[in-house]
Amino acid sequence: MMGSLTHYGQEEPLEHTDPKDLYLISKNIMAEPDYIEDDNPELIRPQKLINPVKTSRNHQDLHRELLMNQKRGLAPQNKPELQKVMEKRKRDQVIKQKEEAAQKKKSDLELELLKRQQKLEQLELEKQKLQEEQENAPEFVKVKGNLRRTGQEVAQAQES
């Protein structure tokens, strides 16, 4: 482990040194540029190089458009096919859950109307079944039913 030299030439561990001293030590290692100290007009000061791509009008317009789209939430879609499908499934599932929740929150009136509608449908189905049975029944069953009815009618007529 390296340490810093004290004024007696002995090494002092870096763990016990002050952070300000570490800054001064690292500053002494690096040489400072000449143009910072002197205001000599003969020296050429370094300037940042111009990037021709960034200064081009097309690049600036494209960059501005991308920033606007990002603020609006219209970022370009570079997602893989699988990720798109999974997101669509998730959206569909959320929509289905919302619809089910809306159906569960039906009012009492709606529930009562649904019950009555179901009862009416069941009664209609039963009537249809009875009519089909009567139509499909053999001839002797129909005749027997007619005889019973006429026998009951005759009995009622005689009693009165």
From TrEMBL:
Q: Which residues form a coiled coil?
A: none
Organism domain of life: Eukaryota
Q: Where is this region: Disordered?
A: 1-20, 70-107, 129-160
- Statement: the UniProt record of this protein carries the keyword Coiled coil: yes
In terms of InterPro entries, this protein maps to:
FAM107
Pfam families documented for this protein: DUF1151
Q: Where is the composition biased (Basic and acidic residues)?
A: 9-20, 81-107
What are the entry keywords?
Answer: Coiled coil
- Name of the protein in question: Protein FAM107B isoform X2
